[in-house]
Amino acid sequence: MPAARPHIEPHRHPTADSVVVKEIYLSVQGESSHAGLLCSFVRLTGCHLRCTYCDSEFAFRGGNRMKNAEVVAQVKALRSPLVEVTGGEPLLQPGVYPLMEALLAEGLTVLLETSGAIDVRLVPPEVHKIVDVKTPSSGESDRNDYRNFLSMNARDELKFVIGSREDYEWSKALIAEHRLLEKPYGTLFSTVFDKLHPRELAEWVIEDRLPVRFQLQMHKYMWDPAARGV
């Protein structure tokens, strides 16, 4: 079943001027078509999913509530023109919508990394949305909100994280069913780190002539995957 849509008017929520932040840091973007670029990261606290391969469980709880203006000031101090809002699941917080608008107003290129379990239709259209599609090995594939396929634009990208041949075949079938390769947005395939060798996935994509973007999580090859702030 699709998750409930976020509040129809998040800007009017009592906490719309603030977000609970786990960490803000500067690194190199490790995924998506922006991989390799200097990027500031704003990681928000909280997630309603429990994916088996989650690499950010530390963000499920804790953090500090910050005014959106404080977050923008910290991001600007990092001096990167690219910023990603991530989690956890950032769209659980009503304040994230005005936060993204405030970052855009500063002339920043804004990325959003989201689980795909919440409809992204209220996200500002100028934001580059990177939307997960949960595969069977995640344990959360029944939480995918397929309304997202209609709420995305040419700036955006769907991300399939593949942990097995079953995940790969499932993803291929879903792509065919929803004719996703005809959509204006990109489609990304990556592996569950340490579960499936990237070469295997690359060989399947080549064999099937599948026109997706194969990617690695670059940051996990450069730094300890368990490290914070990378």
Automatic annotation (TrEMBL):
Reaction catalysed by this enzyme: 6-carboxy-5,6,7,8-tetrahydropterin + H(+) = 7-carboxy-7-carbaguanine + NH4(+)
Cited Gene3D superfamilies: Aldolase class I
Binding site for [4Fe-4S] cluster: C47, C51, C54
CDD domains found in the cross-reference section: Radical_SAM
Binding site for substrate: V28, Q29, G30, R43, T86
Binding of S-adenosyl-L-methionine, residues: Y53, C54, D55, G88
InterPro entries: 7-CO-7-deazaguanine_synth-like (IPR024924), Aldolase_TIM (IPR013785), rSAM (IPR007197), rSAM_sf (IPR058240)
Residues annotated for Mg(2+) binding in this entry: S56
Keyword line: 4Fe-4S, Iron, Iron-sulfur, Lyase, Magnesium, Metal-binding, Queuosine biosynthesis, S-adenosyl-L-methionine
Co-factor(s): Mg(2+); S-adenosyl-L-methionine; [4Fe-4S] cluster
Pfam families tied to this protein: Radical_SAM
Cofactor binding comment, as recorded: Binds 1 S-adenosyl-L-methionine per subunit.
Signal peptide location: none
EC number, UniProt record: 4.3.99.3
Stretches assigned to the Radical SAM core domain: 34-225
Pathway(s) it belongs to: Purine metabolism; 7-cyano-7-deazaguanine biosynthesis
Assembly and interaction partners: Homodimer.
Protein family per UniProt: Belongs to the radical SAM superfamily. 7-carboxy-7-deazaguanine synthase family.
HAMAP family: QueE
Main function: Catalyzes the complex heterocyclic radical-mediated conversion of 6-carboxy-5,6,7,8-tetrahydropterin (CPH4) to 7-carboxy-7-deazaguanine (CDG), a step common to the biosynthetic pathways of all 7-deazapurine-containing compounds.
Protein name: 7-carboxy-7-deazaguanine synthase
Species for this entry: Hyalangium rubrum
